[in-house]
Amino acid sequence: MRELDATDREILAILSKDARIALKSLAGRIGLSRSATSERVTQLEKSGVIRGYRADIGEIDANVIRAVVLVGLKRTPANHLLDLLAEQPQVRRVSSVSGQLDLIVEIEASNIDGLNTVRDLIANHESVDDVTTAVVLRRNIDREIR
């Protein structure tokens, strides 16, 4: 990889602030032709200096309270609890896990009362030994893995 010069650094500074800038505008700002600018951007991409372009999107629905409920069971399986959770519209995902925990329950509710209703339902179930609730403050990375 060649050493970055002042023009490369200027391109990177501009793209880091506005990754959607038109090539013509970028070329005008750095004082090069469109083809020369395109070539430099392509080289920065090929060398791995520019690894990609992304949209950084904030919370779309700020009126949703998300929580993760960590559940320790007295015994497994707890099919009655799973059936009960499946009936709750606030429950988005239930995962059985190994280790000290048995279940991870992901909840989305429109208000704290909705969250507490599901949390209390879990905590008061006969098969549940221990419950820890963590309210999600922000999702830093959120992708569907298939």
Task: Describe the 3D structure.
The chain is α+β, with helices and mostly antiparallel strands and 146 residues long. The chain has 2 domains: 6-46, Arc Repressor Mutant, subunit A; 65-135, Alpha-Beta Plaits. It is built from 5 helices and 4 strands, in the order H-H-H-E-H-E-E-H-E. Strands 2-3-1-4 form a 4-stranded antiparallel beta sheet, covered by helices on one side. A hairpin with a 6-residue loop joins strand 2 and strand 3. Helix 2 (23-30) packs across helix 3. The longest helix is centred in the N-terminal third of the chain and has 13 residues, at 34-46. The radius of gyration is 25 Å and the shape is elongated. The model has no long low-confidence stretch (mean pLDDT 90).
Topology diagram in text:
Layout: H1 6-17, H2 23-30, H3 34-46, E1 65-73, H4 79-86, E2 91-96, E3 103-109, H5 112-123, E4 128-135
Keywords, separated by commas or semicolons:
alpha+beta; Arc Repressor Mutant, subunit A; Alpha-Beta Plaits; 2 domains; four-stranded antiparallel beta sheet; 5 helices; 4 strands
Taken in chain order, the helices and strands follow as HHHEHEEHE
Report on the biggest sheet.
4 strands, antiparallel
Mean pLDDT: 90
**In the CATH hierarchy, what is the architecture of the largest domain at level 2?**
2-Layer Sandwich
Q: Count the beta strands.
A: 4
Beta-strand residue percentage: 15-25%
Q: Provide the CATH superfamily of the largest domain.
A: Lrp/AsnC effector binding domain/regulation of amino acid metabolism (RAM) domain
Termini separation? 35 Å
Question: How many whole angstroms does the radius of gyration measure?
Answer: 25 Å
Q: How many separate domains make up the residues?
A: 2
Query: pLDDT below 50 for ≥5 consecutive residues: which ranges?
Result: none
What is the approximate shape? elongated
Number of continuous helical runs: 5
CATH topology title of the largest domain: Alpha-Beta Plaits
Share of helical residues:
25-40%
- The order of strands across the largest sheet is 2-3-1-4
CATH class of the largest domain: Alpha Beta
Summing up helix and strand content along with how strands pair, one would put the structural category as alpha+beta
